[in-house]
Design goal:
Elements lengths: L1 H5 L4 E7 L16 E2 L2 E2 H11 L5 E6 L4 H10 L5 E6 L4 H11 L4 E6 L7 H14 L1 E7 L4 E4 L5 E5 L5 E10 H10 L8 H7 L5 E4 L11 H12 L1
Parallel strand pairs: 1-4, 1-6, 4-5, 7-11
Antiparallel strand pairs: 2-3, 6-10, 7-10, 8-9
Length: 231
């Protein structure tokens, strides 16, 4: 605790791992699926453990998984964990629970099922947030985008200029994120940038790479396995 307080700027990572993973169509939740002999969440935690700018890690998970998470933390020697807290009914509720537990001046929110995140991208996003107050990792969209109607018919082509695919971590000054949760529109919010946008705060984009994929469907498992083996 003393070393934590000595730093000019402290950073908490809130790892959100409370999803049910219904789209995986598997009995085991996606954050607990093993890839290359480690659960997905362990790969994610290892990346934040290795990032020197991260001071503490908080896991937000389902109540029934809390003891499992503690076992994973112990097995894979994640020393920066300070708390494992219960998630909420929605992602927004889960992040809020993790935010209340965070002690840092800045908070990095990350999806527990993005195990391919690189420590250098975590650090780059945190440093940008320290400069601007709010920053998010992402990539410019390279595919051609089409708008499609309810019948599956293309109606027009959407320009790619200025369009980015958002990822995590998303890093914010803690007081600013608390303000967004208290005053912003949380209904239908799929990420924390939306909350900042709803109260008029500008979020800086930091370019990462396309390997930082989110494990969502079964096909993602082989892709993530390949990426992690290359790392």
């Amino acid at each position: 605790m003393a070393d934590f307080l000595k730093k000019k700027h402290t950073v908490s990572a809130v790892i959100v791992a409370a999803g049910s993973g219904t789209r995986m169509k598997m009995q085991k939740r996606k954050q607990l699926v093993e890839i290359n002999h480690m659960p997905v969440i362990a790969h994610t935690l290892k990346a934040f453990e290795k990032t020197d700018i991260i001071d503490e890690i908080i896991i937000v998970t389902r109540e029934e998984d809390i003891l499992i998470m503690w076992d994973i933390v112990k097995e894979f020697e994640i020393s920066k964990i300070t708390e494992i807290v219960k998630g909420g009914a929605t992602r927004t509720d889960s992040v809020r629970n993790g935010l209340y537990a965070a002690r840092g001046d800045f908070v990095a929110i990350h999806d527990g099922v993005r195990p391919c995140i690189k420590p250098e991208h975590i650090k780059k996003t945190v440093l940008k947030a320290m400069e601007t107050g709010a920053a998010a990792l992402g990539c410019p969209v390279t595919d051609t985008l089409k708008r499609v109607d309810e019948n599956g018919i293309i109606t027009d082509t959407v320009t790619r200029e200025g369009i980015w695919a958002i990822q995590t971590p998303q890093v914010f000054k803690k007081d600013l994120l608390l303000k967004a949760y208290n005053q912003g529109n949380t209904e239908g919010a799929t990420d924390d940038c939306m909350l900042l946008e709803s109260i008029g705060v500008k979020v800086a984009m930091v370019e990462g790479d396309r390997s930082n994929i989110k494990v969502t469907v079964q096909d993602d498992i082989d892709m993530v396995s390949s990426i992690l083996l290359q790392k």
